[in-house]
Design a protein that fits this description.
- The chain contains 20 helices and nine strands.
- The chain has helices at about 15-25, 35-45, 60-65, 85-95, 115-125, 140-145, 155-165, 185-215, 220-230, 235-245, 255-260, 270-280, 285-300, 300-305, 320-355, 360-365, 380-390, 400-420, 425-440, 445-455; strands at about 5-10, 30-35, 50-55, 70-75, 105, 130-135, 145-150, 170, 175.
- α15 (about 320-355) packs across α18 (about 400-420), α15 packs across α19 and α16 (about 360-365) runs antiparallel to α17 (about 380-390).
- Bound molecules: adenosine-2'-monophosphate.
């Protein structure tokens, strides 16, 4: 092929390969480079007749691309602080001397957003353009159409738009990609997307656990999830949960799910979300509960030891009417999920305002409707909510969601109570409910808290009967001992 390529990709692991095949399938010629050359050779040989240009050196790779070059890096990112250096930095350093002004470097890995901000500033100094793009959808999404969350200057987005829009998933004809905002905004939104994903997964697991302890078989549970996937809860995660529960182990004939050890892994984006929420003083208690549930699950040895020492109900859920329980758990899950999204979006809004990113929450929810792991029917409702009211203070206050929370809450409360009285942990269900009840409380017990603070530290307090901002202190009695 003598013509220069439209797009280049570095890093031919599965995600990279699939993304290349996706881009190529939309009519673009793609150059590829991988540190280990044999991987490149095998990849190109495996796809004869496709518009692929395999290159053996970075020089050859760069020379094969049309200007301005569009180079997508898909190598393993490991940096967890803005000062950490990883493979993405190594590749960038090798590229810099080979590039021309205005060339575009895209990091499509799961990079920490502050690292992205550092790289953005560094490359801008050198006259190069950088895009930190969150790409969600796993291997299948990369091949067939992911949800893409690109950050960086709007002018760079305009250059990348035709390629990104053609490779992204489509919902109702709309591509699941928008320009999120400048700098690290794209990777930031991807990070929160992952936090929300943690919340969704944990909520589904809590529903499953209640059914399991109420005596449902795995096939019955699979049928419930499959049915839920026809309604308000329609989503990729509900769908795969149903399919996972149906799966039988060929060796034993048992459900595979019941053979899997109950120790959850995590790669860190959930923890990043938590740390970011703490830094910004935003409550994301459902996501927090989900991350902590994974941590506690991983402490299997301690839990097994404690199970014979710490007393309590054994977790058996007594449900006389199974159909009634299914309806109640459905409502608890739906309500909790709304709260979880309200929290995640509140964090995005808060950070976006501080950073001056000018984020559009409705359009962000819209690009999560397809391609990504949290794709779900109810994201349409979130898009509508922000389209109607772009300054919505909290998703729960949107008329549609307010109504759902009102209608589901009796069942939600009953499920949390039932599980609690049965000794069955529902940390994410109850965190959501606690948030809902705190957010709607006109008066919280923080008056006593302020008294305590003033008592031991003379921190002062405001009074209900005096103007806001006027501070008071009481001479509290001395406490002996
Ligand atoms: P490799 O095949 O040569 O190992 C996922 O690990 C992808 O990132 C692989 O394509 C891998 O290349 C690439 N990768 C990891 N570290 C790298 C580095 N320091 N420089 C270039 N590519 C790297």
């Amino acid at each position: 092929m003598s013509q220069k390529s439209d797009f280049g990709l570095i890093g031919l692991a599965v995600m990279g390969q699939n993304l290349v095949l996706n881009v190529e399938s939309r009519g673009f010629q793609v150059s590829v480079y991988n540190r280990t050359t044999s991987v490149t050779d095998e990849f190109v040989a495996k796809h004869p007749g496709k518009k692929l240009v395999g290159t053996k050196t970075l020089e050859e790779f760069v020379q094969s691309l049309a200007l301005p070059r569009k180079i997508h890096i898909m190598v393993k990112s490991t940096a967890v602080k803005d000062t950490d250096r990883d493979a993405v930095d190594a590749v960038i350093e090798q590229l810099i001397p080979l590039l021309d002004q205005g060339d575009i470097v895209i990091d499509g890995g799961n990079s920490f957003y502050q690292t992205t901000e550092r790289r953005d500033a560094y490359l801008a100094e050198k006259g190069l353009r950088f895009i930190g793009a969150g790409v969600s959808g796993g291997e299948e999404g990369a091949r067939k159409g992911p949800s893409i969350m690109p950050g960086g200057p709007a002018s760079t987005w305009e250059v990348m738009k035709p390629i990104f829009e053609s490779i992204a998933a489509k919902v109702d004809g709309e591509p699941c990609v928008i320009h999120i905002g400048p700098g690290g905004a794209g990777h930031y939104v991807k990070m929160i997307h992952n936090g929300i994903e943690y919340g969704d997964m944990q909520l589904i697991c809590e529903a499953y656990n209640i059914f399991k302890h109420a005596g449902f078989t795995t096939d019955e549970m699979a049928a419930i999830f499959n049915e839920w996937n026809e309604g308000d809860l329609l989503s990729y995660l509900i769908q795969i949960s149903g399919k996972a529960l149906e799966q039988k182990d060929p060796e034993t004939g048992k459900p595979v799910v019941e053979l899997i050890v109950d120790k959850a892994g995590q790669k860190g984006t959930g923890q990043w979300t938590l740390m970011n929420a703490a830094e910004n003083a935003v409550v994301i208690s459902t996501i927090n509960a989900a991350v902590e549930a994974r941590i506690l699950s991983s402490q299997k040895k301690q839990r097994v030891a404690a199970s014979t020492q710490l007393t309590g109900p054994d977790g058996t859920v007594n449900a006389a009417d199974k159909a009634d329980l299914v309806k109640k758990v459905h409502d608890a899950l739906y309500a909790s999920k709304i709260v979880s999204y309200a929290q995640g979006l509140d964090l995005i809004r808060s950070t976006g305002e501080k950073k001056g990113w000018n984020l559009d929450l409705g359009r962000i929810a819209a690009i999560w409707r397809g391609g990504c792991i949290i794709r779900a029917r109810f994201l349409n409702r979130i898009t509508d909510a922000y389209r109607t009211n772009p300054t919505l203070a909290n998703l729960m206050l949107d008329p549609f969601f307010k109504d759902v929370l009102s209608k589901t809450q009796q069942n939600w409360r009953e499920v949390v109570s039932l599980a609690t009285l049965s000794g069955l942990p529902v940390p994410a269900f109850s965190a959501s409910l606690g948030y809902y009840d705190s957010y709607r409380a006109a008066r919280l017990p923080a008056n006593l808290l302020q008294a305590q603070r003033d008592f031991f530290g003379a921190h002062t307090y405001e009074r209900t009967d005096k103007p806001e901002g006027q501070m008071f202190h009481t001479e509290w009695p001395e406490v002996i001992g």
